[in-house]
Amino acid sequence: MPQQRAHEALTERQRCVLQAVVHLYIRTGRPASSRLVARRLRGRLNLSAASIRAIMAELEERRYLTHPHTSAGRIPTDRGYRAYVDSLTSPQELSEQARSFIERELSAHSEQPTLWQEASRVLSALVSAVGLVQPPMIERLPLRRIELISLSLTHVLVVLIFSSGAVRTLITQLSSELKPKYVELLARLLNQYLAGHSLATLRHAYTALQQELSTLPDPLPQTLQQWLEQLPELSETPEQIYVSGTSRLLHYPEFTAAEQLRTLADLLEHGSLLRRLLARYGPVLEQHPIFVGIGRELGEAALAEYAVILGRYQLGTTHGVVGIIGPKRIFYPKAISAVHSVARFLTELSPQT
């Protein structure tokens, strides 16, 4: 997670004022004036509006706050949001209603592609942002079973069914004819030796299978070798990323510019932006349960005004990613808890392999 630890040197007064400005801006979407901040902190700091204004000026000088040229109020910068997320707030426990909503909506789906789409919709509904779910990478998923279907004497359809329920198919053209009885024999041997392995570890399992095949007549060994050379192609097809709720961003006044939202919607639809993000920050989830990226930290011009929150869910020995894309002024305590809760529930629902 991107970190800027300079905020640890803030004074207690500066921390209180920064927290108040962020809270006010998250709630209203309008720059926070010193008078509103003083009112919010009454009973905690008991400072005049003039004193608050001086502290806000200090925070602006240190790049935690800025102000639109048309307003005397202040809004958080990316640095200000980062300080808020890192040390001025904590995840908020979801309400019983929200937890029941997650359980009710996700428990109704047993097929994983449908479950993943529903999980993205649930996240979007909970935090009024774009919800997303990335399934585990196909090459890391264990094979549940392999089916071979004869299309002709020289063409066989290879069907790979993974532990997640994902299916990949491959039509192979054989260099010589293969009788149906040999297709059945190969299918039995493939399942005996390869089921439970992933595409990434398939070649290790093939060593044991080769010894078995060495006693079989041609063209079985050559046919199997041909298939194994083609199987890595299946992992080159990008896994679908499930996205819901782009239109919910229209609820935020800062995203009413049609062109800005259209650009983001196009990037999400084509998947290029999400794949870059997940490739860049997904590995962070190996060490941290939650990733929070804010504005320009993300390194994507199209996301300069957005926040991204990602979490990891387990599927057997591998994992997928859930998350949201919303405005920088999203209510982080609830959004972080929502991502964590949906990730945890998907882990509980996933078959353990």
The domain tally reads: 3
Read across the widest sheet, the strand sequence of neighbours is: 7-3-10-9-8
Number of helices: 12
Question: Any idea what the CATH architecture of the largest domain is?
Answer: 2-Layer Sandwich
Number of strands: 10
Structural class: alpha+beta
Question: Helical content, roughly?
Answer: 40-55%
The CATH superfamily of the largest domain bears the name GAF domain
CA-based shape: elongated
Give the H and E element order. Answer: HHHEEHHHEEEEHHHEHHEEEH
Average pLDDT taken over every residue: 85
The CATH topology label of the largest domain is Beta-Lactamase
Write a brief structural summary.
The protein is an alpha+beta fold. The protein has helices at residues 12-28, 34-40, 49-61, 78-88, 96-107, 112-127, 180-194, 202-213, 220-230, 258-270, 272-281, 332-349, and strands at 65-66, 75-76, 130-134, 143-152, 155-162, 167-173, 242-244, 290-294, 306-315, 318-327. Helix 1 (12-28) crosses helix 4.
Protein model, in words:
With 353 residues, this protein is of the alpha+beta class. The protein folds into three domains: 84 residues, Orthogonal Bundle (Arc Repressor Mutant, subunit A); 152 residues, Beta-Lactamase (2-Layer Sandwich); 96 residues, Enolase-like, domain 1 (2-Layer Sandwich). The protein contains twelve helices and ten strands. Strands 7-3-10-9-8 form a five-stranded antiparallel sheet. Strands 4-5-6 form a three-stranded antiparallel sheet. A hairpin with a 2-residue loop joins strand 9 and strand 10. Helix 2 packs across helix 3. The model has no long low-confidence stretch (mean pLDDT 85).
